[in-house]
Amino acid sequence: MRLACITIPHFRIALERARAPDLGRQAIAIGEALSGDRTIIDCSPEAAALGIRRGMPLRDARTMAPDLVVLPPDPVFYRRAADALLDAIEDTEPRVEAADDAEGTVFAAIDQAAEAEAQQRAGERLLRAVRAGAGVEASVGIGEGKFIAWTAATVSAPGELTFVPAGSEQAFVGPLGTSFLPVSYATQRKLALYALSTIGEVAAVEIGALQAQFGREGRQLWELARGIDPAPFVPRARSEPVSGTLAMPSATVNSAALLIAAQQLIGRLTTRPAMRHRLVRQLRLRLALLGGGSWEHTLTLREPTADEEALLFVLKKLIEPLQLTAPVEEMGLEFIDLSGETGKQRSLLFAEQPRRRAQLIATLHQLKARFGGEPQVARVVEVEPWSRIPERRYALIDYDL
After folding, report:
1. From CA 313, how far away is CA 335, in angstroms rounded?
2. Domains contained in the chain, number
3. Residue 238: its pLDDT value, please?
4. Which of 55, 146, 205, 381 has the highest local Cβ count within 10 Å?
């Protein structure tokens, strides 16, 4: 299947430079708080040339590059830009799929029956659409399957298009290094140990030998080295989310105040006409922080629901342990995956439960009255489950209804 891969190298860095042109060509990194420390989540090519890498602690990066410009992450801004990128591409080519493992990378289906010149013109239209819609320069590669299209885009400079004609896939990837192969780190190390430095050298090895040495990844290596990528192309289903925002009366980090705001937003969204006879499968919580920056998290629910208490319970588990770098100015909530209502089989004995509970209460009252008003039934409750002494872990509590 002929695909176009549209990728923006260092997507978040490109967005920050488009938003603040005065950053110029400085060494830039984006740092995120993680487990009490800040780590680098993206860096510019200039920073990479100084030895800065993703996942590196910020203190180590500062030691290596004292003049490094470190920006706080703004996931809400990045998400909106990614959505705008998808929309711009989808307006040009209707079938698109966002790459799961690479932010700022999108695949688009190209007319299989079109001539090579027409396919190249489609790639040029995609370049212009991204420039107009997202405000950044993208690299575009066109080829057979995701791997060839992605490789072609990766070797292209921003604003350029690389076209791989049908039938020349193996010749195109042959001279490239094995680092382009999307395989595990252990497999990459093994390839280096066997002195296989180019994809063409991997293609010269028989499939049996590759499978013997690399197991399941052996067949994948054999196919990719020959320009074959069986990975399916799954176009996204476009749906309009139900969303809302709420400005905080004053910037706060108090979890109780954030929960009240979340409860108000849930109440507003669940009563929208668009939510009639629909359930929430996935929601996204966004927080705008004082002084710039933002926080964002997406939750997938175990079971779709439209119950306000259930949605609040899920957000409570997310908000209460939250540690933010700045107070919250605005909260946004978005229901991004909605489904129709589904029926649930209730227990055939559901009608018997109230009657049985009434009988249980009456029996307990009778026992209590018979033995001088003292409860005769107890229940086990966890008290100190972490204690080394078994007797302290649990306690018997009177079951007095």
Report:
1. 15
2. 4
3. 65
4. 146
